[in-house]
Specification:
Structural class: alpha/beta
Bound molecules: ribulose-5-phosphate
Helix content: 25-40%
Distance between the termini: 34 Å
Strand order of the largest sheet: 2-1-3-6-14-15
Number of strands: 15
Strand content: 25-35%
Largest sheet: 6 strands, mixed
Order of helices and strands: HEHEHEEEHEEHEEEEHEEEE
Radius of gyration: 17 Å
Number of helices: 6
């Protein structure tokens, strides 16, 4: 494991302190969430009664292979804790997500969760969102070039490709990565994007994290609003 993977693993292990004794867990997507799902698989093997709601087909396959019982994809769910990674995190706990093209399902699961814990390594922290990452925007295929024109009022949209073809999300839509530069008002931009017809969901997650666990080389810190240092009882 290299240093970056070790930090992701450390963040994932730290998130276990935020889990109830048993209950429903939202399972994120990406390389950091992958470590978390591995840890949950271990706990299930040891007899803990967790059920999961995965946010992508990739996470579903991993959880199934580890024997984690899963709830039906239709919902409705009452999720105790959602744990997921992020591409960029600002000091006010706004996030850019969707590097793995799963942000629509992630936002649905995030919204259905009582507590939201984000796990990242230090490389994900920014002063202003948009400094290093574009904002992924999931768009339905019908009229996507017109939707892209509308998006160009807010930044420079670039259609995400997989080889020669546009990348498809698990739901069959396309992704535009919207290059904005540093974002002055992430809450406002999230709202503006949601008003464009054809936009399914953006990767801006504002006011959607209770705690962000940040792992560096050898250290772990927690950024949080209204969430005690450890455990659900503190909220
Ligand atoms: C997937 C996501 C991921 O959480 C995000 O891309 C971070 O991934 P990683 O942990 O691999 O850095 O939003 O849609």
């Amino acid at each position: 494991m290299n240093d970056s993977e070790r930090a992701k693993r450390r963040a994932a292990e730290e998130a276990l302190r935020y889990l109830p004794e048993s209950g429903v867990l939202g399972l994120g997507t990406g390389s950091t969430s992958r470590h978390f799902i591995d840890c949950v698989g271990e706990l299930v093997k040891q007899g803990r009664d967790f059920r999961g709601v995965p946010t992508s087909e990739q996470s579903r396959a991993q959880a199934e292979a580890l024997g984690i019982p899963l709830l039906a994809p239709e919902g409705p769910w009452k999720i105790d804790v959602y744990v997921d990674g992020a591409d960029e995190v600002s000091a006010d706990l706004c996030l850019i997500k969707g590097g793995g093209a799963a942000h629509t399902r992630e936002k649905i699961v995030n919204h259905a969760s009582r507590h939201r814990v984000i796990i990242v390594d230090e490389s994900k922290i920014s002063v202003r969102l948009g400094e290093r990452w574009p904002v992924p925007v999931e768009v339905i295929e019908f009229g996507h070039l017109s939707t892209a024109q509308a998006l160009s009022g807010l930044g420079r949209p670039v259609l995400r490709m997989k080889g020669e073809l546009p990348l498809r999300t698990d739901t069959g839509n396309v992704i535009y990565d919207l290059h904005t530069g540093p974002i002055a008002d992430p809450f406002g931009l999230e709202r503006e994007l949601s008003l464009i017809p054809g936009v399914v969901e953006s990767g801006l997650f504002c006011g959607r994290a209770d705690a962000v666990i940040v792992a560096g080389s050898g250290s772990v810190r927690v950024l949080g609003v209204g969430y005690g240092e450890v455990g659900l009882a503190a909220k």
